[in-house]
């Protein structure tokens, strides 16, 4: 196989139709009928699965507008137009329900295969947009290229976030660009129990934990925070020395300026994972994003494009 590898459009994964991309470094599985979920990333040099897997033998087909629960909480999903459930804050859609974790993770996507990869496309249900993502491999890197169109003439407040549940061990650690000095809590659990509170990074005061470290096994903790200001450099990393690889994400900071981090060590459904979430807007919900100065608006008829590179090495 070459660095670009091969693409299979007739695969199956946990009972669902799948697209496989594979080269000498990675094997990636995408489920087009389940929100184009990236179901699996296998790092072939170590043979390890990079993403947390579903608890059962079969992949659940989610219902639109449903809750992102334990049966959905595995792999990597696309969140748009928000993460938190709520009601749209602006006219002409004011009051329209925004589903938990957004619309597109629970929708089937259209598909177009090529020799180098696959493109998946989905349209909004309650809101007028077209969302497209192309997947391809380049050596040890999964390349994701995005294009979102606002199909209405109105300004559209929205936020995209990548939502990958990367497997972790107690030796795992998070690396961020230089200059990140504070984070804003999106949690109500210790040690970040003041939602919207600003905390020093990486070391909390009064003997609190190092936010770069994954807590010890058995602690059953879970917390989420957002980098407290727009990123100057578009990258983050998760080191996994106990698993033999590092995950490094790269993205354009001028178009993807926010980063959320969810560390879960058994506190939610017993999973041990970390979600590094590059995003166009922050603080999960649309109203909260505006309140904390992390909102993103698309102009009427606007088209926005960005990329995400996921390197496993």
Q: Biggest sheet, strands in spatial order?
A: 9-10-11-12-25-21-20-16
Strand proportion, as a percent range, falls in: 35-45%
CATH topology category name: Beta-galactosidase, Chain A, domain 5
Output the number of helix runs: 1
Order of helices and strands: EEEEEEEEEEEEEEEEEEEEEEEHEE
List low-confidence stretches.
none
Inertia-based shape = globular
Task: Give a short account of the largest sheet.
Answer: 8 strands, antiparallel
Radius of gyration, taken over Cα atoms and rounded to an integer in Å: 18 Å
Q: Kindly state the percentage of residues in helix.
A: under 10%
The strand count comes to 25
Quick structural overview:
By secondary structure, the protein is an all-beta fold.
Describe this structure in words.
There is one protein chain. By secondary structure, this protein is mostly beta strands. It has a single domain, classed as Beta-galactosidase, Chain A, domain 5 (Distorted Sandwich). Helices cover 2% and strands 43% of the residues. The protein has one helix and 25 strands. The strands form six sheets. An eight-stranded antiparallel beta sheet has the order 9-10-11-12-25-21-20-16, with no helix packed on it. The model has no long low-confidence stretch (mean pLDDT 95).
């Amino acid at each position: 196989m070459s660095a670009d590898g091969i693409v299979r459009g007739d695969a199956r994964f946990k009972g669902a139709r799948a697209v496989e991309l594979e080269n000498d470094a990675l094997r990636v599985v995408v489920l087009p009928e389940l929100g184009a979920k990236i179901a699996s990333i296998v790092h072939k040099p170590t043979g390890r699965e990079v993403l947390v897997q579903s608890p059962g033998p079969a992949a659940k087909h989610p219902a639109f507008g449903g809750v992102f629960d334990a049966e959905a909480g595995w792999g990597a999903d696309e969140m748009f137009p928000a993460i938190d459930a709520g009601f749209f804050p602006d006219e002409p859609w004011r009051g329209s329900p925004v589903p938990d974790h957004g619309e597109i993770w629970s929708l089937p996507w259209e598909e177009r295969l090529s020799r180098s990869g696959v493109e998946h496309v989905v349209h909004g249900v309650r809101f007028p947009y077209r969302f497209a993502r192309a997947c391809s491999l380049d050596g040890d890197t999964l390349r994701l290229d995005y294009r979102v169109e606002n199909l209405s003439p109105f300004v559209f407040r929205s936020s995209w976030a990548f939502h990958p549940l990367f497997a972790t061990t107690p030796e795992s650690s998070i690396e961020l660009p230089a200059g990140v000095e504070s984070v804003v809590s999106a949690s109500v659990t210790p040690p970040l129990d003041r939602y919207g509170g600003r905390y020093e990074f990486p070391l909390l005061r009064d003997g609190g934990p190092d936010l770069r470290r994954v807590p010890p096994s058995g602690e059953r903790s879970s917390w989420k925070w957002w980098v407290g200001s727009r990123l100057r450099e578009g990258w983050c990393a998760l080191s996994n020395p106990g698993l033999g690889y590092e995950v490094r994400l790269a993205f354009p900071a001028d178009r993807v300026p926010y980063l959320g981090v969810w560390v879960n060590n058994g506190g939610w459904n017993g999973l041990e994972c970390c979600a590094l979430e590059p995003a166009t807007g922050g603080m999960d919900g649309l109203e909260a994003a505006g309140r904390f100065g992390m909102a993103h608006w698309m102009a009427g008829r606007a088209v926005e494009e960005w990329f995400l590179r996921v390197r496993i090495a």
